[in-house]
Structure formats: structure tokens, C-alpha cells
Amino acid sequence: MLTVGYRKLPSYQITDAIEDALSGLSWLQDHGFDGEQVVVAGDSAGGYLAFMTTLSAIRSHLAKPAGIATVSPFTDPDPARKLAHRNARRCSMFTCGALSMFARYLGEVQLPQDRPKSSRRVESPVDADLSPLPPVAIHASSDELLLADAELMAKRLTAAGIRCDLHLWDGQIHDFPLAADVLPEGRRAIRYLGDFVKEVTDGCAARTPAAAAG
To answer: H helices within the chain, ranges in order?
Structure first.
């Protein structure tokens, strides 16, 4: 497994993080791993990075990873759909006010200043052309605010003809596999993600698969 120490907000821009993740894919290729041996993985904001890195890698012909594995991914910078979701006031981690403030922050601060203000929008995975993507696994809590993002991403992927395994976990918190040492559900989710990685890299079983984590 390769974990990329990508540049983060607020010191850097989102495009810097994607650039660093692409450098991670290049590093894997330089060390003998083909795209079909790589699954790009990320949780929460790292889920956004996993989707955007894979899309960027395919667009630039750098690589086409074997899959994308995510937990509670942030996929929709527009807060409107999340604020209208049934979980808007149920999530124990994110409040509606905090979400709205974060959305304004993304739109006003952390985009390249050399671009016209009208075009300084965070690119949204749910609004991208998803047809080139490999199979995707998404795990999320049924009670979290980012369930809206997980459900919408799964819907858009399916509409684009892309396999998406959506796993919803009742009664869990955002990014619950982080607590796998105390949560049986977290351990099960990690095991399912491992099974997904093995499945999508099965064609290169004679070689060692690698996961690039966001």
C-alpha cells in the first residue's frame, strides 16, 4: 500500500492535492505497477481525491486504475442537496451551518486566483463524465450527512454504466472504519473493501496489487 502525503487545505489548493496524488500513481508505475494493479482509495475528503485523481489520470492517459474504493466520500461541493437530505439534522458530526460555511470557503478561497472568479468552482465528481471510470466501492453510514453524496455518486455511476457497490451501514458515524479497533462493523467494512480490491485486481493475480490511498 502506498499512502500519499498530499498537500492539504488551508495551506494549499485542492489542485495541489490532486497533483500530489497523480505523482503517487506515477511513482507506482516507475516501480513496476501497472494501472490494472492499482486501486485508488480514500475516505471522507480523501474519497473526493480518489475520484478526482482517477478521473485526472484517465483524462491525461497516465493510467487507468483497476478500481476506486471509498468510505464516506465527499463527492458534491454544492451543499444544496445535502441540506435538503433527510440526514441534514441527524448527522452527529457535521452540522448544516458548518457545511454551508465550508462550501463558501471552497468557493471563495481555495481555487486558483489566476482563473476568472466565475469559473473558480470546485470540480464535482458527481457532475463529471464518469463513463471512463473503473468499478467503484462506496461504504457510508445510513445516518451521516455525506450519505447524500454516496447515494448520488452511486446513482450517477450506475447511470453511466459503471459498476458501483454501495454499502450502507445502519447506526454508524461518519468514516466509521477509522474506529475498527473497537467497532466490529468497521472491521467488516475493511474486510469487504479488501475483497473488492482482490476482485478487481484478479486479472493480475500473479503480480502484487497496490492500493494508492488518499
So the answer is: 14-30, 45-59, 80-83, 96-108, 147-159, 184-200
